[in-house]
Write a structure and sequence with these properties.
Layout (H helix, E strand, L loop, with lengths): L14 H7 L2 H7 L19 E5 L5 E4 L3 E2 L7 E2 L8 E6 L6 E6 L5 E7 L9 E5 L4 E5 L2
Antiparallel strand pairs: 1-2, 1-9, 3-4, 4-8, 5-6, 6-7, 7-8
Enzyme class: oxidoreductase
Pfam family, one: SelR
EC number: 1.8.4.12
């Protein structure tokens, strides 16, 4: 798991530049570690084949082949597209101990990853990702 020594993000913008690039809702989740309400996200129930990119910087994060239905209210993936696509960081906010998922390219907040929940996936992990953090590029 990554720590304060995370590598410098490849994409670096000022807060004003991020606010200009992102909608207020996107900024609240991606740059301020917010969470969208469950069952309202654009990609929660999507089964379209394609690639999921970071909405902030367009880095490839997940693919539809790793997406699965977890019934948790957010898009769920059992693994990122590439092992270095995301950074995992301990999150002890809100009185809980969780693992935050960040885009490795711009360090935007994506969601959290959970283990040992018994889903029938190859990794037994659930990357619970905010739809608003993603942009789906459908496969041709």
């Amino acid at each position: 798991m990554s720590s304060a020594s995370d590598p410098t993000p490849r994409v670096q913008l000022t807060e004003a530049q991020w606010r200009e690039r992102l909608s207020p809702e996107e900024f609240a989740v991606l740059r301020q570690a917010g969470t969208e309400r469950p069952h309202v996200g654009e990609y929660t129930d999507t089964t379209t084949l394609g690639e999921y990119h970071c909405r902030a910087c367009d880095a490839l994060l997940f693919t539809s082949t790793e997406k699965f239905e977890s019934h948790c209210g957010w898009p769920s993936f059992f693994d990122p597209a590439e092992s270095d696509a995301v950074i995992l960081r301990e999150d002890v906010s809100l009185g809980m101990r969780r693992v935050e998922v960040l885009c490795a390219s711009c360090h935007s907040h994506l969601g959290h990853v959970f283990e040992g929940e018994g889903y029938p996936t190859p990794t037994d992990q659930r990357y619970c990702i905010n739809s608003i953090s993603l942009r789906l590029t459908p496969k041709d």
